[in-house]
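pasting for the record
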Amino acid sequence: MNLLAQLDRILPRVEKPGRYVGGEWGSLVKDWPAAALRVALCFPDVYEMGMSNLGLAVLYDILNRQPDVLAERVYAPWPDMQAALRQAGLPLYSLENKRPLSEFDLVGFSLPYEQLCTNVLTMLDLGGIPLLAAERTDAHPIIIAGGHAAYNPEPMSDFIDAFVIGEGEEVILEIAHCVLHSRRPTTDDRPPRSEILRSLASIPGVYVPRFYDAHYNQDGTLAGVRPNAPDIPSRITKRIVPVLPPPPTRFIVPFIDTTHNRAMVEIMRGCTRGCRYCHAGFVTRPVRERPVEQIVAAIDETLATTGYEEVGLLSLSSSDYSRVGELVEQLGRKYAGQNVALSLPSLRIDSFSVDLADALKDGRRTGFTFAPEAATEAQRRRINKFIPDQQVLDTARQVFERGWRTIKLYFMIGHPDETLEDVQAIVELSKAVLAQGRKAHGKAAQVNLGCATFIPKPHTPFQWTVLDSPAAVQQKLDLLKSQLRKPGLKLNWVEPQETFLEALLSRGDRRLGHVIHRAWQLGAQFDAWSEHFRFDAWQQALAEAELDPAFYTYRQRGLDEVFPWDHIDTGVRKNYLLQDYQMSQRGETRPDCRDKCFSCGILPTFNEMRADLPLEAWHCPPINLKSGI
């Protein structure tokens, strides 16, 4: 009650107090004393970002369906609220029961991207929990983390007790039951921490860093990450949900605008396109689809229970959903004239995608987004996203002719073996797309360009290559900025220093834990927000740790080098990725592996994990055992 009384005085003085009050429509406030297990679901960014995260909404729904489990939300407070909490001596608290983070049994962090690392430390510190896992006692919660950034868990291993590798729908209940059943039946005391962690390490897909040691060669490269205790697996194979469960439909409706003011239904998981730069495409294999009937029913219930007027149909490549035509036809017919907006955010550059988007629109024409990623056919072959230039222009023409006035194009610079001529081609292609728009809409046509820098991510074919140098990236950005200053063209870009940090954290090893901790002490937080990004703090932290950042970012890897993430098994074999990398150097492409299996390794992984399910559940063609991979 003291916390609530003080919040009444604090909240009127901070920006967007709606971030911190809770009580939204759809939130669940369970009886705190009656709960046998209390879980805090933490998103280490502001409320607006966390409320738009589907993964957290899924876990919130799953856990709260358990009668003996309570799950509540915690988001990273903005700096003004952090200062207010510290000044008042108040802890970071959950939105539902307004309980301090330290009072939960299990605290789970979602890590969808690497720049959230320092915010995790901020939340632990505000919540009264020791930052270092080694300093926590039996009285402290168990700290777990999962998400795409957890596929290389080593940089954050000093701070996290256990990582979930892979998909969480099934394993989160196994973790919850493990912690719950580890409680001593005769008292309310927490069980010994070591006992719980040992039990967690026995769950498939759970990585407990304390049971592993990192070993290094004399040259500083990694010799391996190996178990230091008996009965600990040498490799952690990701968890895969073989059949997607029905999607959540009772979303929490926020009081304030969020990043995506809409409900979300995941129609398909995984991707078979094999774009060589795409971390998500490789770590989410294999493809699994939800039935059309289940999707339509979920949208019906979601609209009825939330009042949302927009639903996003999510996947990595929505137009690859095998029944997408049927789905769009049903939805278009069902919601015609009801002012319901349905969107397919991830579409290929082809006429079929334009047809799909056109069928879903209800007369509103805002913008249309495509991601060529590279502007020359040769570069698109290298990254295995081959699209002929003429197809890009033909699709743009169709988009404009059907009423859209704005097209957004996503490109990357810094691709392997990229030249300034390749970057100049971005300018020429963008102007050519704008010319198509001018034919349809005159000066009202607009082409917006998003430009990021390629990062050689773990578990992809490009994990052996280098991050482009800062000087080269700046030269390429300067070229784009100078030549895209034209009415109808708008360029947004990511600064090279921000790209460097993402590359460092995604490719780093366990030694970066000291760097993260020190950078946080020096003021680093909200690293994904340009106005708060403190590059100087990271530079100082690296210098104090006597670590050369180029070792992680600008160094070409040997083909036989051990990576910091090699003990994390995504189901896609490393030698398959290597073969694909070598194909990229020759400008060779692979077709969609739904049409031809190249034996990446995911089917044998499935067979080992779930021999009770038919291979057809994975939407893969018959395995090619003679591929030599």
